[in-house]
Sequence to fold (296 residues):
Amino acid sequence: MEPVTTDHVTAFRRFNRYFTRRIGVLDDHYLGQDRPLGEARLLFEIGDGTSLRELRSRLGLDAGYLSRMAKALEAQGMVSLSAHPQDNRSRMIELTPAGRVEVTEQDRRAGVAAAGLLAGLSAPQRAELTGAMATAQRLLRLAGITVALVDGAAPDARSCLDAYAADLDERFPEGFDKDDLVRPEEVSGDAGAFFVAYEERRPVGCGALRRLEPGVGEIRHVWVHPDARRMGLARRLLAALEQEASARHLTAVRLDTHAALTEAQAMYRACGYTDIPAYDDNVYASHWFEKRLPSP
Fold:
C-alpha cells in the first residue's frame, strides 16, 4: 500500500477533535448524566449481562481500567458483579434495576442529542451525512482488521476453511466436498502460505497460496465472513497473497472459480486477472484466471 501522507493524518486528527467536542465526549457528565462517556458506554455494552473478559475483548480495554470502571458502577448501584458459573477465574457483570433505568434514560438523551444535531440540516444534507458516516465506519472497520500469516494447520485457519466450505456447500447447486480443501502441508512453509484476517481478535477471512509449478503459484479459498463483506477485505486478502507470492519469487499466480461466484469473477478481473484456459481439473471450476506479478 502507498504510505500515509501528512495531509491525511492531519485531516483525520482535525475531524476527531471536532467530532469528540461536538458530541460531548470531553464532558465528565456525558449527556447531562452523572458519569463520563467511558462509564456510560460500558453500561450500554453490558446489555442483558456478559463477562468482563468478553467486554475487555470487545471494547479493547485494559483489564485494570475496565475493573476500576466496573467497581465504580457497582458502588453506584448500577451493576452487580458475580463469579462466572463455569469459570471461577472470570467474572460476570449485569445491570441492576437502577442500571437498566439509567441505560433507558441514556438512550433517550442520546436520541434527542442526535436529532438536535441533524435538525440544522436539510433532508438531502442529512442523507449525505448519514451516507458519509456509513462510508467512514466501513473504512475504519477495514483499517482495524489485521491480516496475519499463520500455519496451515492452525485452529483459526481450519475454522475459516470449515466456514468457507459450508458457504460453498450452500451456494453450489452440486454442493461442496470438504475433502477438496487444501491440506495444511500445501499452504505452510516452503510449499505455500495461509493468511487469516482478524477483527478484534475474531477470524473474519482467509486466503491460501500454494506453489503450482516453477515460478507459478495458485491462490485458493479466498473467503470473508458474511459480517465483514462489502468492505474491501477480499481485495486486501488477495493483495496480501500476491505480495507473498512475489516475495517467494513467483512471477505469476493463477486461480479458478465457480460459475455461481459472479462477484468473485468480477473482483478478480477488476484486480488485473485475465481469463485463461483451464489449467486444472477442478470439478467446481468454470473460470480460470492468471495475473503476472512484478518483481519484489
About this structure: The longest strand covers residues 202-213. Strands lie at 50-51, 79-83, 91-95, 146-150, 192-199, 202-213, 216-224, 252-257, 274-275, 287-292.
